[in-house]
User: What shape does this take?
Amino acid sequence: MRFAPEYVSIVLDENFEDAKELLLSPLMSINYAHLVMLAEQGIISGADARMLRTALDGISLDTVREVTYDGTYEDLFFYIERLIEQSAGDEVAGRLHTARSRNDIAMTMYRIRQREFIAAVATGVLDLRAAFIDLASRHRESIYGAHTHTQPAQPTTMAHYLLAVIEQLERDTTRLAAAYESTNRNPLGACAITGTGFPIDRTRTSDLLGFSAPTCNTYGSIATVDYLLESVSATGVLVIGLGRVIQDLLLWCTMEFGYLRLADGFVQGSSIMPQKRNPVALEHARAIASKAVGQSQAIASAVHNTPFGDIVDTEDDLQPLVAQMFRDATRAVTLVAAAMRGADFHRERLAARAAEGGTTLTELADTLVRDHGLPFKSAHAIAAMLLKARTEDPDASMSEALARASTAVLGHTLSYTEEQLQTIMSPAHFVAVRTTYGGPAPTETARALSASVDLLARDKAQWQARRDALATSERRLRSAVDGL
Assistant: This one.
């Protein structure tokens, strides 16, 4: 069959190049695994299996990657089939395609590659968690004024802030692990859509290819893309969350804030302004993460409202976008992790601004409630009046302002010394008394950090076990092929 030149240049040529880059190695693994299973099940003879093994072994992947598409075959699958025919002859070569289709081959290739993408993103997340844990461990007592709605809110610690980020990344890791497990199911054997009458062993090919199990329904094995959307969505959630953190980090790098300083290797200067120290690594990370968000949305849009069945919308044209989305997400996460390993916070500047804007007034109100049994609403009103008085006259006595405010609200005076109020309204006191589970007190952040360290170790071990399982399956496949 000769294809129209427009179809060749617009579709087939580009798909062939994409397939060489993304799908050649998975395709060869599938060929080997299917060959072993056919021979073990007695579907093809041992002699034919050995001829096919020789043909597959004779294919140089590097040579294939240099091939230029010429339009005499449809895609990479048919090109590899041609090479097998040239080595083993048409009759023997044709036996390799018994009990399979390009449909189940394609879906299996996509899953093999996708689980690698997920694992790469997860590795980046683990590294980022480690970087933030190290940073938080050094800043359990570094107090700063947190914001809500972009306005000064309450004092907390950098460790407390970073632990919030760490916990988010821990949930990202859980989502990615679940997506990996959904992806790591083997469609091979579903054939075009209804399976086959041959006595194939789908569990055997799953084992040889490193899958945890076969997919079940043969129609769904070909039709579904929810496994893809699950991993894409998990990655989208990751980079959206990370982008919000990057926004804070960049704000803190400004001269106006001056909270965060990146290592020299992650900043750039200016060609005209000698004083510049631009935190461009984080800007790049934000831009790359935003690309990944857009790509994840484009993937969902591409498969939206397509028929629930075999359809090209979910296949070769989509795979480069999938690969690029995972690549950019991995780049963003990895870059932030690297930048954070050499970054540090300016403790003195953080502390100097921690009480600005009345950030400790909540603790004053809480103290009035504890000491005098007031309704919190009344205590809140007193604290607000004290702030108003101090705003109008920064040198005004706090004890006198509190006395006037309490008399106005309660009809009687609450008396505290200036020293008592200084302590009550100090950022250090504010943080120290907030020993709530998950709170900012150094004793509580120490506990939380210990838990995060333990969880990181467990998660690292689990992801290493997944990588080890894939490596073991590769060795098992080669051993089975050699034993034909």
About this structure: The first helix runs from residue 5 to 22. The chain is about 65% helix and 5% strand. The chain has three domains: 5-98, 103-353+449-479, 361-425.
